[in-house]
Amino acid sequence: MIKSIQKSWPFVTCLFSVVLLLTSFFLPSARTPLAQGIMILGLTATLAFAIQKSVDAFRQGGTGGSPLLVVILQDLLGMLLTVTAAILSGALIGGMVGRMAGEAAENLWPGVGGITGMLAGLIGGLLAGGVAALGVTRLWSRLTASWRRGEPSSGGRVALEASEPVGRETH
Fold first, then answer.
1. Does residue 63 surpass a pLDDT of 50?
2. DSSP-assigned states of every residue in the chain
């Protein structure tokens, strides 16, 4: 069931976007509750897909012996960190870029500063959010890769190996 929903999820997302856009024009009062419902449905589906992926990896033995709950919690925490970084960086950079572009466009061409600022802020926010999400995702996957393989952290071991005398050999 989840696999079939997961395969068709891009089409469902596009359909929700079109419905939300049309609702904004024809029923403006229903836009906010509908947007909240779509957001909750999207987050629920994302969580279900992540849990299903973790369960499939656990069944195939791809978790390196880690307990299923630990794998699921690592995935959910990584998703939370990724979304938070994308939202915060997108809002911060998008707001700054939009403000600067709007003021510059208004000085050059009076009357078009607002739309220019909105478009520049939207593009800047999307790019900054995407870069932040990609960076956090890669960092998190590197951090959790050793945990899932069951390797201990190498913090103290590297320092100990570097301090051993070179001239002595033990057999």
1. yes
2. -HHHHHHTHHHHHHHHHHHHHHHHHH-GGGHHHHHHHHHHHHHHHHHHHHHHHHHHHHHTTTTTT--HHHHHHHHHHHHHHHHHHHHHHHHHHHHHHHHHHHHHHHHHSTT-HHHHHHHHHHHHHHHHHHHHHHHHHHHHHHHHHHHHHTPPP-HHHHHHHHTS-SS----
